[in-house]
């Protein structure tokens, strides 16, 4: 049923008459990286250097990424926003798409760009154990033969928060009974740096950055070279683990032309707001004079942080250089930040809203759980990774693959080609960026306050929209909601999760099992047998339901919880109170009994005590008396 790995790659790569863009990555630790100039730390890089090389591919090619894991733990690579039509085992989401690449082994990711119809601005990052927090992340740019808009030159702008402590240490501090309120780790700094196609831009000439990262310009050591009168495309990507960013350029206007791989009609803005994992392309017209250089601003949204440490500078700057040596004009500070309204963006290629056939409602809740830690939930369920990756359950359960419960309580089954509204209601006070793997969704409705009866705050869903905005990551503010419409046309297993890494680790995810019988049919001769072998190498189950059993219902051993504390009295509390009440009643009855003169008189009680004291000496003292009374 399943193909040897090399045959699988050969079959996929020859589907269309196209080239193959082939890359080799050796994922390694890199010591003493210091991109912010503040602290040397170990990071996760590629081929012995950091940051990992940017990826730039023509849409006439397929991308074949050979990833060798030189770490001491499993890793994966997720090409964020790629559809992977009917091949979700290439999606790179650990415990959903694959078990992970064992240390010392290689996995080949085939991204069928040439047959996907996708182009634009994306990124690639680790999707295992929070490794992208430690640096395993890079731009992924797909160039079509004919761009929608014309420009003279393009640059990629990479934004990201940065931690001086490794993710594993921070995670233990975050999910901990000492942090019952769930305060997320606050970044130590932010980064801005630039790429052009497959190359990072170097530091400003004459600067002396830290040696390990000295080939790349970061923050004030970086600059974009502009020529007066030219038109530039800037592809801006937020690769953070936590922080949203506000981005603008002093003295220059911007027009949005793309969001998350969807070209849109020109939309003028003074500022971009980017939640984690979102991307925008903007056209920037260079000035006609070169008498001054200009400041670029990337400010963290500090309203997301429980505290803002005095050591944190949340306002990151770089520059546009027209004339080296000239002064940099800085027009900051600004009075207010502004956010982008998704529904105001209009795709250049219209896709009408299809009639809906199913609605899935997901309510976001954060709470202190019954084990004292703070976790996140959809509909009261904390996501725990299944013991068997969901795609492997799909392919090995046979007819039982159509039973939703076989995949665990955090799973939702979708029938082939049904049109689904995913309504995400954010009951949390903070905003959250949600990303759906394997799809672009239409944003068909948004509410500022989802439980309001005021239609200005909670408008009704309008059917028959001619061309709603499409993207793969949406930001939902606290108290708000978004209705995301998809067509279930991509058989496989796909994760939906908050892209704040700390919230994913805390359980804010569900998995969609899409058209499982069709997924089985399409996997024949294509699913790589190496994926099973690598599960075995890691000691991970690779067949059966979420718990590894050949059953639709037996989930014994599946990790679940923790659970919300019950409101009111817990069972133990009820029993304890009942015991207290019973004891009190007995005591009161005893008082009444003696007050009525019933029972032994005081003289009789005194005589009994004397007899016990006399007997005590014969039995060996007080210890004997205690033994008798026990």
Description:
Keywords: Copper, Disulfide bond, Glycoprotein, Membrane, Metal-binding, Oxidoreductase, Signal, Transmembrane, Transmembrane helix. GO terms for molecular function: copper ion binding; ferroxidase activity. It comes from Paxillus rubicundulus Ve08.2h10. With 630 residues, the protein is of the alpha+beta class. The protein folds into three domains: 17-143, Immunoglobulin-like (Sandwich), CATH 2.60.40.420; 149-347, Cupredoxins -  blue copper proteins (Immunoglobulin-like); 358-538, Immunoglobulin-like (Sandwich). It contains ten helices and 32 strands. The strands form six sheets. Strands 11-10-9-13-18-15-16 form a seven-stranded mixed beta sheet, with no helix packed on it. β15 (254-259) and β16 (262-269) form a beta hairpin. The longest helix is centred in the C-terminal third of the chain and has 25 residues, at 571-595. It is globular and about 70 Å long. The relative contact order is 0.12. Mean pLDDT is 91; it is low at 10-17, 572-577, 590-602 and 616-630.
Instruction: Give the fraction of residues assigned to helices.
Output: 10-25%
Instruction: Please provide the count of β strands.
Output: 32
Q: What's the number of helices?
A: 10
In the predicted model, the low-confidence regions spanning at least 5 consecutive residues are 10-17, 572-577, 590-602, 616-630
CATH class of the largest domain: Mainly Beta
| Overall mean confidence score, pLDDT | 91
- Main sheet attributes: strand count, strand direction, barrel closure: 7 strands, mixed
**Strand order across the largest sheet:** 11-10-9-13-18-15-16
Which percent range describes the beta-strand content? 25-35%
The secondary-structure class comes to alpha+beta
* CATH homologous superfamily classification of the largest domain: Cupredoxins -  blue copper proteins
Q: Give the N-terminus to C-terminus distance in angstroms.
A: 71 Å
CATH topology of the largest domain: Immunoglobulin-like
**How many separate domains make up the residues?**
3
> What is the CA-based Rg, rounded?
30 Å
Domain Plastocyanin-like: 31-146, 153-323, 411-516
GO molecular function, one term: ferroxidase activity
Pfam family, one: Cu-oxidase_3
Signal peptide: 1-18
């Amino acid at each position: 049923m399943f193909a040897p790995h090399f045959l699988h790659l050969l079959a996929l790569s020859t589907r269309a008459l196209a080239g193959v863009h082939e890359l080799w990555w050796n994922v390694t630790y890199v010591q003493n990286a210091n991109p912010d100039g503040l602290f040397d730390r170990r990071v996760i890089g590629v081929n012995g250097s950091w940051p990992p090389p940017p990826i730039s591919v023509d849409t006439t090619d397929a991308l074949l990424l050979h990833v060798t894991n030189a770490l001491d733990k499993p890793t994966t690579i997720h090409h964020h926003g790629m559809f992977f039509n009917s091949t979700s085992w290439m999606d790179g989401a650990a415990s959903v798409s694959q078990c992970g690449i064992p240390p010392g082994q290689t996995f080949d990711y085939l991204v069928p760009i040439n047959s996907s119809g996708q182009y634009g601005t994306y990124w690639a990052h680790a999707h295992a154990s929070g490794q992208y927090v430690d640096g395993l992340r890079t731009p992924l740019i797909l160039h079509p033969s004919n761009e929608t808009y014309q420009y003279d030159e393009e640059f990629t702008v990479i934004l990201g928060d940065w931690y001086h402590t490794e993710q594993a240490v921070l995670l233990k501090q975050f999910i901990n009974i000492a942090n019952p309120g769930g305060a997320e780790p606050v970044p130590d700094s932010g980064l801005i740096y630039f790429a052009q196609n497959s190359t990072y831009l170097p530091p400003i000439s004459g600067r002396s950055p830290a040696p390990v990262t000295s080939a790349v310009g970061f923050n004030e050591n970086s600059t974009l070279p502009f020529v007066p009168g030219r038109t530039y495309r800037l592809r801006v990507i937020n690769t953070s683990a936590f922080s949203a960013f506000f981005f603008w350029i002093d003295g220059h206007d911007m027009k949005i032309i793309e969001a998350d791989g969807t070209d849109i009609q020109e939309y003028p803005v003074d500022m971009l707001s980017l939640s984690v994992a979102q991307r925008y392309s903007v056209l920037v017209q260079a000035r006609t004079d070169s008498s001054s250089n200009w400041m670029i601003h990337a400010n963290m949204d500090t309203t997301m942080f429980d505290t803002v440490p005095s050591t944190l500078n949340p306002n990151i700057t770089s520059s546009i250089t027209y004339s080296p040596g000239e002064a940099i004009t800085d027009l900051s500070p600004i009075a207010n930040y502004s956010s982008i309204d998704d529904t105001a963006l209009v795709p250049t290629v219209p896709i009408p809203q299809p009639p809906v056939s199913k609605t899935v409602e997901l309510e976001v809740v954060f709470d202190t759980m019954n084990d004292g830690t703070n976790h996140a939930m959809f509909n009261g369920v904390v996501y725990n990774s299944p013991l068997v990756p969901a795609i492997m359950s799909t392919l090995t359960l046979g007819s039982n693959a159509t039973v939703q419960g076989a995949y665990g309580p955090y799973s939702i089954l979708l029938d082939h080609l049904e049109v689904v509204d995913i309504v995400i209601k954010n009951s949390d006070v903070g905003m959250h960026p949600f990303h759906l793997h394997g799809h672009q969704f239409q944003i068909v409705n948004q509410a500022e306050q989802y439980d309001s009866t005021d239609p200005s705050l909670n408008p009704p869903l309008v059917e028959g929209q001619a061309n709603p905005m499409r993207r793969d990551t949406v930001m939902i503010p606290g108290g708000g909601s978004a209705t995301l419409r998809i067509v279930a046309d991509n058989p496989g297993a796909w994760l939906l999760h908050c892209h704040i890494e700390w919230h994913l680790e805390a359980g804010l995810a569900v998995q969609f099992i899409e058209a499982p019988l069709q997924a089985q049919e399409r996997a024949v001769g294509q699913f790589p047998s190496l994926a099973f072998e690598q599960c075995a190498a890691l000691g991970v189950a690779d067949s059966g339901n979420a718990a590894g059993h050949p059953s639709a219902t037996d989930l014994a051993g599946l990790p679940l919880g923790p659970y919300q504390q019950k409101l009111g009295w817990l069972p133990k509390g009820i029993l304890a109170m009942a015991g207290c009440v019973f004891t009190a009643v007995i005591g009161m009855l005893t008082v009444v009994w003696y007050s009525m003169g019933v029972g032994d008189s005081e003289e009789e009680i005194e005589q009994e005590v004397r007899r016990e004291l006399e007997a005590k000496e014969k039995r060996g003292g007080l210890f004997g008396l205690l033994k008798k009374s026990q």
